[in-house]
Amino acid sequence: MDITLLICEKCDKKFIQPKYACPNCHNGDLIEKKTSGKGTIYSFTTIYTAPEMFTSQVPYHIVLVDLDNGPRITARMVDGEPIIDRKVELVDIENSVYWFSINKD
Known about the structure:
Layout: E1 2-8, E2 14-16, E3 30-36, E4 38-47, E5 60-67, E6 72-77, E7 87-94, E8 97-102
Parallel strand pairs: 6-8
Antiparallel strand pairs: 1-2, 1-3, 4-5, 4-7, 5-6, 7-8
Protein name: OB-fold domain-containing protein
Pfam family, one: OB_ChsH2_C
InterPro entries: ChsH2_C, NA-bd_OB-fold, Thioester_dehydratase-like
């Protein structure tokens, strides 16, 4: 699954939506670019005590993913154990939450 990045025309900073101006230089000229949803786990944490609306999902993993062609993003794991430097791929975006799975390649 691809991911849409926003790229600032002025400073070339890459980030994910929703943004209306560059968080780095505040320029409003942004370009949309589709890129691979593949990346590498940079860091993670496992949630055992969650807010009430998520208690049925515990334990669950929150991961920081360095996208192959983009920025680092916060996401959830769909399956598998997160391991730092493990390759993952985007499988869904739901309510602005990015869901990753272990890359089978």
